[in-house]
Amino acid sequence: MDKLGVAVIGAGFWGRNHARVFKEIEETRLVAVCDIDHGKAKNVARQFGVKAYTNSGRMLRRSDIEAVSICTWSTSLAKETLKALKAGKHVLVEKPMAANSKQAEAVLKMAEKQGLQLTVGFLMRFIPSVQYLKGALAEGAFGKIVSATAKRVSEWPERIGDVGVVKDLAIHDIDMMRYLFEDEPSAVYAKTGRLKHKSFEDYAHIMLTFCDDKNAFIEANWLTPYKTRVLTITGSKAIIKLDYITQELTIESAKETLQPRIPWQEPLKLELQNFVKSILSKEKPLVSGLDGLMAIKIAEAALKSSRTSRVVKIE
User: Fold this and answer.
1) 8-state DSSP, 285
2) Residues 177 and 314: beta-carbon distance below 8 Å
């Protein structure tokens, strides 16, 4: 079988990881990398033995490139995605997919028009423990779910500069709540603020209301001196705790505490393998463009709620 020709747009920390994994995946052939910074593009291209570009339009004219990962700044994601889709390439675009929901809608429409696969980089879904948890929730193993609480905090990341903590960090947990609850929130109430950043919020507390009296609480910030990525789900039969970093899952019931043995796997490799499989088999990817759009809409509703100090209904 011929390998799928792939390229990466954006040769920063995350783009370099995408390039590495594409070199490792058996079904793909990394062809090129692109970055407006010639030095970054050249360094990554040299590391993986491919051609470097600083102009994505020129790179996308190559017929041997069938799919691309887009790992640029958030405000450039939609522009680069539209460019790739118009060039007939399948796209995996990193979260948040676009700077706003209007851009995300344009991206989604273009993918549908071109008949191309579009997926969004919500990496948390691909953690093996999350897949285990997803199955157990669907089976009702933990009884009636009451609430879920996510905590995603860390020190100030120097790479951030074009979106705030809601669209950069909390959006992961917004997507996870939708994914695990298999539902859209009906309303959101949030409080955000700035302590260190002049232009964007650097801390946020978000409450999402779902049907059947379920609620989700999300805390995200760039102010904490150590990195924490945890999820706690409260059910009528058990409390489930997941550490996204270690991938450890703990299930506490009235009788016992269990820690299922779930082999560690690299989520990025699983994510890119799913993207490639969706192209080769023409199947729907685990994360759709619509998932990306809905996450942005909910993030925007959270920011609106904070500005107005009111509950915002979600259509």
Assistant:
1) -
2) no
Q: What is the mean pLDDT of the chain?
A: 96
Range of the domain at 70: 4-123+269-287
Residue 30 belongs to domain with CATH number? 3.40.50.720
Which whole-number Å values give the CA distances from 206 to 170, 201, 299, 311, in the listed order?
Answer: 9, 13, 9, 11
Each residue's pLDDT tens digit, 213-222: 899 999 999 9
Residue 292 within a domain: no
Report pLDDT digits (tens) over 88-115: 999 999 999 999 999 999 999 999 999 9
How far is the CA of 295 from the CAs of 101, 168, 185, 240, in angstroms?
9, 11, 10, 24
CA angle, 248 then 267 then 143, to 5°: 45
State the Cα–Cα distance between residues 185 and 33, nearest whole angstrom: 38
In whole angstroms, what is the distance from residue 52 CA to residue 233 CA? 45
